[in-house]
Each structure stands twice: as structure tokens, then as C-alpha cells.
Prior knowledge:
Low-confidence stretches: 30-41
Structural class: alpha+beta
Number of helices: 2
Number of domains: 1
Amino acid sequence: xxxINLTFNLSWQSEVLxxxxxxxxxxxxxxxxxxxxxxxxxxxxxxxxxxxxxCRERGACLTIDMYHSGTTLLLFFAAHRDNDSLFVWWEExxxxxxxxxxxxxxTKHSHSNQIEFFGNQFPEAAEFICEKIGTFYKGRMxxxx
Length: 145
């Protein structure tokens, strides 16, 4: 039983970023937009992690749901198939996902919703992901108000 791969065959870049994210989530998600306010508790937000594979791109996908919003933010990050850069794709889908996402959940225009990070820009990628979650959360809270 020592042969079980607990990394889910993720690229090393995805694994590094995935392990860094919890430290960035602590108070940083909305801090990027409200510099004077650090929100400790994001009411009603649920973040789940799933492995997601797109040919040679073996990464992780975060699904960010807010109760009763009917919209899910998908954040897929992996090593680029042509080089060692790390990319982040994002997409808002008008549904709540009961199971893990697939590449079919990303639309054809998702490639325009992509940013690349080169070298060891893992902190920058983590901050970008937190900003995307913060924007999503803030937008849902404004719609609910």
C-alpha cells in the first residue's frame, strides 16, 4: 500500500500553489479590495478543491460557491503544457456543481480568462486567486443586498 499517490498526479507547480493557498486565504480574500477591512469569516462561501486534467495539464480546480447565488466561480491552475509557467483560468458558471468540474464547464472564451505566471511567481499567483475570489464574493454580496 505504499504505492498510493496522494498528489493526484498534479504537476509540481499546481501542488506547490495548492499548498500555499490556505495561508493566503486567512484574511486576504477581500483585503485586496477593502484595504482597511480584513474579513475573517466569509459568510456563506464554500471553497472546494478538485483535481482537473486537460491532456498534459494536470492541475487543481477550486470551486467557489455562495449559498443560494446560483453561480459558481471556477479557478483552474496547472503548469502550461508548452513550458514550465503556471497558468490560472477562471470562469463563472450559472449553476451549482454537485460533483467536481470538468473541462466542459469552461466555455470557449475561457482562454481569454487566463493569466500566466513565470518562474517562481507562486505568491503572485496565490494573491491573484484571492483577488478573484474577493471580487466574486463582493459581487454576490452586493447583489444580495
